[in-house]
Fold these 2 entries.
Entry 1:
Amino acid sequence: MDLLEKIVSLSKRRGFIFPSSDIYGGLGATYDYGPLGVELKRNVKERWWREMVYRHENIEGLDAAILMHPTVWKASGHVEAFHDPMIDDKASKRRYRADDLIERRIEKMEASGKEEQARALRTRFVAALHSDDMPKELHRIILDEEIRGPDSGAFDWTEVRQFNLMFETHAGAVVDDETKIYLRPETAQGIFVNFRLAQETARQQLPFGIAQIGKAFRNEIVARRFIFRMREFEQMEMQYFVCPGTQMEHFEAWRAKRMQWHIDNGIRPEHLRWHEHEKLAHYADAAFDVQYAFPMGWQEIEGIHSRTDFDLKRHQEFSGKKMEYFDPHRKEKYIPYVVETSAGLDRTILMLLCEAYEEERVEGEERIVMKFHPEVAPVKAAVFPLVKRDGMPETAQALAADLRGHFNAFYDDSGSIGKRYRRMDEAGTPFCITVDGETMETGAVTVRDRDSMIQERIPKNNAADYLKDRMQGWSRSAER
Ligand code: GAP
């Protein structure tokens, strides 16, 4: 089993993530978050919101509707240009992103030391992405490079065709072109159309940002790799409105801040890197992705884009409403430029699961342990009575209830202590507290550290503060 398969299995077994509608055999590329998964996700959202909105006086929050006026998507360019170039392997009947196949070939060349060939192919690839007939050029490369179907090994391709990724539906009872609307493919447009209202009501001056966490939908043709590419997913996006000409300095500042946020969540810096876009999106003048070293290779988790004034200008054009800002310092009106930070929440979760997963041998037995940063861990502490008698369950339950006033705590009295530890290791719970005979006499409990497995005695009444201190001081390398 590779690491991703192990994570899929653990996610279902422990209640992190389930296939959607599992009793009906699941629904492709759609997943549900179980009891542990929902806590993990809430913690990540909470940390993002705290970092982006509460730590910046000049960033406001927003929660826009998923359904928007259909003209939004004409203005944004999504109706016309939100396509992926796809190619079918006739042998396996599987569909692939043509650009993905070529990228993978380049990476393979690089990995096997064929630097010069890789460079030449990349130059041709970039030219193809910019050409007027991109699908045809990509198709030519696939044929010239004799790229084979990854699943079948066959060399029997269709043409490359463009597929629009937006989900369509209809508002109201009548189903015709007039009532056609879309499920939003990104949260960003909800921010753009509310730019003036948010700026005026919050009385913000530029530079200022609007942050939002919400669902987005894309009819991904190739939806594989668990929650990496889904049809329904969540984004954490922030649009930072700046004076034209200053965008690059803000762009660089946001790049640094966003990379640090992932590191602060417990991701090893060597598992993160920057990837500069080969071909800029129709709206961007600079774009970098934060990539993570997933088991299936380096992949994007967040994009930092300098989007110019494209979106606001287009919304001004299509709506007829002014999107200008009067700059009181410069004493002039202009349409702001935008720097966007756009993180995938589900991809962040998959990254945290991959980063946390460890297998160890402990006293001849295998232990699977999820070494999450305690601040994102679904459960912070578990409380166990050593045995189910002599007042220990009552004392342990009272302690768990007290801890719940501070953070998510769990009470467990079933099975041996060893089994209870193992369950909590798989859930990624940083601390297990045991109430034993000595507790009943002196009030001292043992605290067992998930990572080092070292046990320590502390006064029961001091447990919440003690755990909070330990959580704040956590670092991945720290072996106590
Ligand atoms: N507003 C800009 C925007 O939407 P994007 O690069 O298309 O940019 C931003 O998406 C992030 O959303 C990606 O970095 C990724 O983490 C996440 N994302 C995009 N498509 C996804 C999908 N099908 N499933 C899960 N996450 C996705």
Note: The two ends are 31 Å apart (CA to CA).
Entry 2:
Amino acid sequence: MAVREILNDIYWVGAVDWGIRDFHGYSTYKGTTYNAFLVMDDKITLFDTVKKNKASDLLHHIRSLIDPRQIDYIVVNHVEMDHSGALPKVIKLVKPEKIFCSQMGKKAIEEHFHPKDWPLEAVKNGQTISLGKRTVQFIETRMLHWPDSMFSYIPEDALLISSDAFGEHLATSERFDDEVDFTVMMEQNAKYFANILMLYSPLIQKLLKNVTEMGIPIKMIAPDHGLIKRKYVGEMIKAYSDWSSCKAQKKAVVIYDSMWHSTEMMAKAVADGIMQEGVSVKLLDLEVNHRSDIMTEVLGAKAVAMGSPTLNNGLLPRMAGCLMYMRGLRPCGKIGAAFGSYGWSGEAVKLLNQAMEEMKFNIIDEGIRVKYVPTHNDLKKCVDLGKRLAQAVKAELGE
Ligand code: FEO
């Protein structure tokens, strides 16, 4: 990929990973990018690096502009290996005067790389440094999404280098938000939020409030993944505000797994009931939907219905895995309902309800259990469950 000047004397020098399809359990069907930015000022500064196996891409890009040894400073906004894996190679070559990171970042760098003589300089929240014509202000974003995470803000360009926030896993030859299809970008952006940041929603609310109170103008957001935002900065911040405040649409999802299609029949009947009440619904079979895509659908849905048959006194393994993943991400403000078929013991519905209780879902009733194969009457009860779920959605949304 070619180097791109994103602002006067500021260059994208990162790497595009077209082939990655799994990011520690998150499906990345559309690849990703590891963005790094080179600021040409009196102190030439590199913001973030890339994954270890992409170090040569980064260095090739830097070399097309300068000799890497001319770099004075490196800023490490985030120590996770997709942004720091190339650090040892880069530092060995560059021999930077200083490496700036957060206080927790310094610890994390030491614990990842065990360096002997790296010129690490921990910065505090709000601290500024001068690069010459520009300054950099560091904004600590602890636990968004690692303890070390921080943003770098360049006021002269109203540029926010935002680490993992506001990004998406999307490999493109384009670098800016206005050069791609908005819907495609936002789908991947929502997926990123749902799978990486959802559990930190209260902290995101606090951060957005702090940044608003700081009154800093932001004309461009340069995240460490995906597209640089210059046209849709406002839309991006609004989306984060909505998602982190549990705002949901008039929409439900029915997530299920099935052994011999009985729970599937029930899932369809629940979805029918939801539809009949005029609420949008998506039927998500765990056999064909990846858990990370399911979480993207859950993000914007007001209601979540979950169905599983009972297997060996428990849930089907795919449902158990999906629930474990979902519990970790802590979706907020959802209405829930459970259903499932069984042969003799029938614990699945109880287990689904327990999981939803833990996630503080508003569960509409004890759910529906059906022995072996549902009758027409059983399916009517499932339709009714769907209707009541949809009515609860409309009531909570004030309709
Ligand atoms: Fe993209 Fe948390 O690393």
Note: The chain is about 35% helix and 25% strand.
